[in-house]
Write a structure and sequence with these properties.
Number of helices: 4
Radius of gyration: 20 Å
Structural class: mainly beta
CATH class of the largest domain: Mainly Beta
CATH topology of the largest domain: OB fold (Dihydrolipoamide Acetyltransferase, E2P)
Strand order of the largest sheet: 5-4-3-6-9
Strand content: 35-45%
Distance between the termini: 35 Å
CATH architecture of the largest domain: Beta Barrel
Order of helices and strands: EEHEEEEEEEHHEEEEEEHEEE
Number of strands: 18
Helix content: under 10%
Oligomer: single chain
Length: 274
């Protein structure tokens, strides 16, 4: 698929051996969608809190937990009402579903659709459903939807993964965004949550970069990705794809991406100590 030429793909493949059978199920997560792509493709987008946990037979349920009850806190899209309670089945790797335990009680999640596989209603860990405390990029867009919908957006998060007084701040880090065609560079700063965003840039190829603090390096293997705008790519034929700027002389940046008109794109930056 030509999309793979431009997007860094992260596939998670985990096999689960069932207790009473020889069958093996596998979960495969594709590329993570952009906020806009996830919002448009989801029937329901809402925030919910885990309030109770229901245990069951350990031979039938993952970790002996039948499921959890969640309470809706806020709805961005769909029919769920505030304070509505929903029972969610215990997930497992075979259906890409979150497997709950007591530590999840009281946690809040931003949920893009509830998924149903093998008659099990679960929260998928593929896509953009996430702990609320880790969904700052999404919330910055969703909480201002009426003001910014229909505008192009480049965004992402920057995090220094560490503890102690030597950990650099995620805030006020400078992000440089360069247009391949015009060579114009835009500079934005991350907010208190490490999120950067810019709206209204023209369509085209861009490269986003930043310099880590001294003694820190990019964690490329696990904590860096280019989100995919599935709706934009699916409307194009192969002949419509712009030439990859990485093949142009003088443009050797590894993380170039194409910003479609009125769509979203971006890149996350995550750093660990050398």
């Amino acid at each position: 698929m030509i999309l793979k030429k431009y997007v860094f793909s992260l596939f998670l493949i985990i096999c689960l051996s069932c207790v009473s059978t020889a069958l093996v199920y596998a979960c495969s997560c594709g590329d993570k969608p952009t906020v806009l792509s996830a919002f448009e493709s989801s029937k329901d987008v809402f925030i919910a809190k885990v309030i109770t946990l229901e245990k069951g037979d350990e031979n039938l349920y993952e970790k002996g937990i039948k499921g959890v009850r969640i309470k809706v806190q806020k709805t961005y899209k769909g029919s769920f009402k505030e304070n509505e309670e929903i029972f969610i089945d215990q997930g497992h790797d075979g259906i890409c579903g979150i497997a709950f335990n007591e530590k999840y009680i009281g946690e809040e999640f931003l949920i893009y659709d509830l998924h149903k596989d093998f008659d099990i209603l679960h929260i998928s860990y593929c896509g953009r459903s996430e702990y609320l405390k880790s969904a700052e990029d999404d919330l910055l867009y969703l909480d201002n939807l009426e003001k910014v919908k229909g505008k192009s957006r480049i965004s992402g998060t920057l995090h220094y993964w560490g503890i102690g007084e030597n950990k650099p701040s995620d805030e006020n880090q400078i992000i440089k965004i360069t247009n391949f065609k015009t060579k114009k560079t835009y500079k934005v700063k991350t907010n208190k949550d490490g999120v950067y965003e810019i709206y209204g840039l023209p369509a085209g190829w861009y490269y986003v970069e930043t310099e880590p603090a001294k003694g820190w390096k990019s964690d490329n293997l696990y904590r860096r990705y280019l989100p995919v705008d599935y709706q934009a790519y699916e409307k194009l034929n192969e002949k419509d794809y712009p030439e990859n700027p990485q093949n142009k002389q003088g443009w050797t940046k590894p993380d170039a991406f194409y910003l479609f008109p009125n769509r979203h794109a971006g890149l996350d930056f995550n750093f660990v100590e050398n």
